[in-house]
Design a protein that fits this description.
Blueprint (H helix, E strand, L loop, with lengths): L1 H33 L10 E11 L5 E10 L8 E5 L15 H4 L23 E6 L2 H4 L5 E12 L9 E6 L6 E7 L15 E8 L4 H9 L1 E6 L3 E12 L5 E16 L2 E16 L5 E3 L2 E4 L7 E4 L2 E3 L5 E2 L6 H12 L5 H11 L4 E2 L3 E13 L6 E13 L1 E4 L2 E9 L4 E9 L2 E4 L7 E8 L3 E2 L5 E2 L2 E8 L1
Parallel strand pairs: 11-14
Antiparallel strand pairs: 1-2, 3-10, 4-9, 5-8, 5-10, 6-7, 6-9, 11-12, 13-16, 14-15, 17-18, 19-20, 21-24, 22-23, 25-28, 26-27
Helix pairs in contact: 5-6
């Protein structure tokens, strides 16, 4: 009886441990599901998210999905790929051409493999393929230029004046010579020509250069040397744009939707970011911003309405009209750590009047209005033309057009006149408004209907 009781107890203990184990596993699964890491966006791009608007009449949460621009615009440090090692030419480094490069057809129609790594010291070619990792090419920052440096040396014979080095495109659809030079024609110095001598060379490639485009497209660089000359090392450096940039929308879609909530019926505007870009906001500039109007209709139209964004200097340089002003602005933009006193001293040293900018923001200075046709008559859309750092309440360019009658002696003729009447824009404190503080009048004009018009323009705006 005691034995049976012991077995029952053991069985109960085992079952209890098993059940607790299962529960622990379930809890782990639930925690894993409930704490899924958000999708990591490497570079600037539209990212789907949800906006909460409240509860509906059944007390259920109401969400709508929208896309916003998120992601990295981080400037990377330069990426260097060195093969062979810089060892002061202690010995010939092994070269590793890719199979595609080795089997590609050269200008004489023969394969590189017929020349590569032969025993004859007079006819030996060396070839090398420099691999660029895909993750390096996919960095968020733009590649400004690529620098290729190599050193070559004679091995068993001598560095002859007719030795040739070349960069090749081995892709089957477009076999071509990207670059070639006799070693004697390389502009960089070496130790001369003769047994065991060496020569180095550096080339820089900009966007649009065939070699730059090849590296970006295929992720490698194929280089070879004929006639018993070896690479001591090759070095490929990718130089990135280090300007601080932020991820911003360049194309948006706005839609209006009516929602029935527990607090009543409301109209909400949903803004979707369709296209994103890394933008430099170190200076106040106009940036593109495309709006789509009357989407999915016969009247669908896309207009670049623009936007003003960027930091404002704490000093003002009038339009940077002279070389001295332009150079000073570039110098101070690169040295944002300077105090206001140091900035003022630099202005005095350059002989340029110092005018501080206090409390300014990047604002639209010049706009125009475009009419967009729609199913119900259309709408007027304000388009930003220019941006500038201005006070919080400022005078904006606003144009009005009139048709006036001009006396010709024998009658009248019509003339179209455009007047900059101005417009007050910006924000003031909660108890003040941005209003016109002064006006000036243009000469009186005669309109088509025979009436006279005194066109009045705003001179200055301010908070009042």
């Amino acid at each position: 009886m005691a034995v049976i009781s012991g077995l029952v107890v053991a069985l109960l203990v085992a079952m209890t441990l098993y059940i607790e184990s299962v529960h622990a596993q379930l809890r782990a699964v639930k925690e894993t599901i409930g704490h899924v890491s958000p999708v990591r966006i490497t570079c600037c791009q539209p990212f789907s998210t949800r906006r909460y608007f409240g509860l509906d009449i059944y007390n259920r949460p109401v969400y709508r999905s929208v896309k916003i621009c998120r992601g990295s615009c981080t400037s990377r440090s330069d990426y260097v790929i060195t093969d062979g090692g810089i060892d002061d030419f202690a010995g010939a480094e092994p070269t590793r051409p890719s199979e595609l490069f080795l089997n590609s057809r050269l200008l004489d129609g023969k394969s590189l493999s017929l020349y590569f790594d032969k025993l004859s010291s007079w006819d030996l070619w060396t070839a090398h393929t420099i691999e660029v990792p895909r993750r390096v090419l996919d960095y968020c920052a733009d590649i400004l230029r690529i620098q290729f440096r190599f050193c070559v040396k004679a091995s068993r014979s001598w560095l002859a004046t007719n030795d040739n080095v070349f960069i090749w495109n081995p892709q089957p659809e477009s076999d071509s010579l990207l670059w070639s030079s006799y070693i004697r024609d390389l502009p960089t110095p070496g130790t001369g020509f003769g047994p065991h001598q060496y020569r180095c060379h550096t080339s820089t490639y900009q966007p649009g250069d065939p070699i730059f485009q090849y590296i970006i497209t295929y992720g490698d660089l194929n280089v070879a040397i004929q006639d018993d000359t070896f690479f001591d090392y090759t070095q490929l450096t990718l130089i990135y744009d280090k300007t601080p940039k932020s991820c911003r929308a360049t194309k948006v879609k706005e839609t209006t939707e009516t929602l029935s909530l527990s607090k009543g019926v409301i109209d909400v505007t949903l803004v979707n970011h369709l296209e994103c870009d890394c933008q430099d906001h170190s200076r106040c500039n106009r940036f593109p911003l495309k709006h789509t109007f009357f989407e999915n209709s016969y009247f669908e139209q896309q207009i670049d309405v623009g936007k003003c964004a960027g930091n404002c200097r704490n000093y003002h340089i009038f339009a940077e009209e002279t070389d001295a002003q332009h150079n000073l602005a570039r110098e101070l933009d690169a040295r944002r750590d300077l105090s206001s006193e140091a900035v003022e001293e630099r202005f005095k040293a350059a002989g340029i009047p110092y005018i501080p900018n206090i409390g300014t923001a990047c604002q639209p200075l010049h706009t125009h209005v475009e009419f967009v046709k729609g199913p119900n008559g259309g709408q007027c859309v304000e388009v930003i033309d220019k941006c500038r750092c201005l006070q919080r309440c400022y005078r904006k360019v606003h144009l009005e057009e009139y048709v006036e009658l001009i006396s010709t002696g024998s009658g009248y003729r019509e003339r179209r006149r455009v007047y900059n009447v101005g417009k007050c824009a910006g924000k003031c404190s909660s108890r003040q408004e941005c209003v016109a503080l002064s006006y000036h009048n243009y000469p009186t004009i005669l309109l088509r209907d025979g009436t006279k018009k005194q066109v009045q323009a705003i001179g200055r705006c301010g908070c009042k």
